[in-house]
C-alpha cells in the first residue's frame, strides 16, 4: 500500500507559488458550472447545480448537449425550481427521449421528482443544511452521507420500491461516501455551492475549509504528478489525502485550485506525460515530476 504523503512546509509553499502562477494566467473552457450561471434566482441555481453536477461524468462535450436539453425543458415552465416542483406530480414527457450513457429519460424524470420532493419537505438543500451545520458543522463526509440518505429515501416513494431496487442509471446519480467512493460530483457540487470566488456561487453554509477535493481523473493524475498523493485508487481515502495536503497549501480554502487544476486536464493542456513543447510552457513544470523528467 502506498505510504501517505505529508507535504513539508517548504514543499507546500513551492506548490502554492506555482498554483498561484497557473491561476493568474488561466482561462477555462466549458465547464458544467456554467449551467448554474444560466440562472440568477438562488432556487434555480441550486436545482441547476444538482442536475449539472449529477451528469458531470465523461467528457464535457458529451454531457453538455444533454444538460442543454434538460434546462431548455425547464425553462419552458419557469426555470429549474418550478420544473422539478411540477415533476413531483407530472413527469415531463420531454425527458422520455433524453439520455446520457446509462442514465435514461425515466432516471432523469425520477431525479427531477426527487429534487421536487426534497424541496417540498425542506424548502431547499440550503435550508436543510442550515439546520445541520449549527451550532457545529459536521465533517463533509457525514454531511454528504446524511444528504444522500435523504435523497435516496425520497427517490423511492412507492411502498414496493427501495433505492436498491432502482435502475443502475438512477443509482449512479446518488453515490454514497460510506461505499468508499470519492463522490467527485457531490464534492464538486459542494464546492460550487459553498465557495464564494468565481465560478462558485456561495449559497450553502458549508465552510470552504471543510470541503473535499472533487477527485476526478484529471485531479488525481495531477495530484500524483506534483506529489500530493501516491495512491492509485480514485477513492474517498485518496480524495481526503490529497485534500489534507492541499490544506497545507491553503488551510482556509483547500479546494481553491480545483477549478484551474482540473481544467489543465479537461481542456487538454496537460496530456499526463512529458511533451516538451507543452511542459516548457506549463506553470507546474517546476513542481511536476512528469513534466521535468525528460
Ligand atoms: S508540466 Fe507537463 S505533465 Fe506536468 S502538469 Fe504541466 S503539462 Fe502536465
Characterization of the model:
The protein has 294 residues and is an all-alpha fold. The protein folds into two domains: 111 residues, Helix-hairpin-Helix base-excision DNA repair enzymes (C-terminal) (Endonuclease Iii, domain 2, Orthogonal Bundle); 178 residues, no CATH class. The chain is built from 13 helices and no strands. α4 packs across α5 and α10 packs across α12. The longest helix is centred in the middle third of the chain and has 18 residues. It starts with 8 loop residues before the first helix and ends in a 15-residue tail after the last helix. The model has no long low-confidence stretch (mean pLDDT 95). The structure holds iron/sulfur cluster. The site of iron/sulfur cluster has 13 residues, from α10 and α13.
Structural class: mainly alpha
Shape: globular
Number of domains: 2
Unreliable stretches: none
Strand content: under 5%
Largest beta sheet, briefly? none
Number of helices: 13
CA radius of gyration is: 20 Å
- Please give the number of β-strands: 0
Mean pLDDT over all positions = 95
Topology as a string of helices (H) and strands (E) = HHHHHHHHHHHHH
Ligand inventory reads: iron/sulfur cluster
How would you describe the oligomerization state of the chains in this entry? single chain
**How helical, in percent, are the residues?**
40-55%
Cα-to-Cα separation, first versus last residue: 27 Å
Amino acid at each position: 500500500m502506498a505510504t501517505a504523503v505529508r507535504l513539508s512546509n517548504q514543499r507546500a509553499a513551492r506548490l502554492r507559488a506555482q498554483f498561484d502562477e497557473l491561476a493568474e494566467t488561466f482561462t477555462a473552457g466549458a465547464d458544467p458550472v456554467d449551467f448554474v450561471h444560466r440562472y440568477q434566482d438562488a432556487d434555480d441555481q441550486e436545482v441547476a447545480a444538482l442536475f449539472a453536477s449529477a451528469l458531470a461524468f465523461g467528457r464535457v462535450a458529451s454531457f453538455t448537449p444533454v444538460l442543454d436539453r434538460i434546462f431548455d425543458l425547464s425553462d419552458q415552465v419557469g426555470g429549474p425550481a418550478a420544473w422539478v416542483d411540477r415533476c413531483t406530480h407530472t413527469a415531463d414527457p420531454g425527458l422520455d427521449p433524453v439520455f446520457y450513457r446509462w442514465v435514461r429519460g425515466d432516471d432523469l424524470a425520477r431525479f427531477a421528482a426527487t429534487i421536487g420532493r426534497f424541496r417540498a419537505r425542506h424548502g431547499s438543500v440550503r435550508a436543510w443544511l442550515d439546520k445541520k451545520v449549527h451550532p457545529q458543522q459536521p465533517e463533509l463526509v457525514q454531511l454528504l452521507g446524511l444528504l444522500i440518505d435523504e435523497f435516496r429515501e425520497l427517490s423511492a416513494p412507492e411502498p414496493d420500491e427501495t433505492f436498491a431496487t432502482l435502475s443502475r442509471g438512477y443509482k449512479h446519480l446518488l453515490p454514497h461516501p460510506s461505499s468508499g467512493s470519492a463522490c467527485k460530483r457531490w464534492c464538486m457540487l459542494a464546492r460550487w455551492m459553498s465557495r464564494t470566488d468565481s465560478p462558485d456561487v456561495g449559497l450553502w453554509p458549508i465552510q470552504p475549509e471543510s470541503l473535499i477535493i472533487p477527485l476526478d481523473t484529471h485531479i488525481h493524475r495531477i495530484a500524483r504528478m506534483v506529489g500530493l498523493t501516491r495512491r492509485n485508487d480514485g477513492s474517498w481515502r485518496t480524495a481526503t489525502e490529497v485534500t489534507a495536503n492541499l490544506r497545507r497549501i491553503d488551510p482556509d480554502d483547500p479546494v481553491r485550485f480545483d477549478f484551474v487544476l482540473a481544467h489543465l486536464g479537461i481542456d487538454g493542456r496537460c496530456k499526463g506525460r512529458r511533451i516538451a513543447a507543452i511542459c516548457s510552457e506549463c506553470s507546474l513544470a517546476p513542481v511536476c515530476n512528469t513534466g521535468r523528467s525528460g
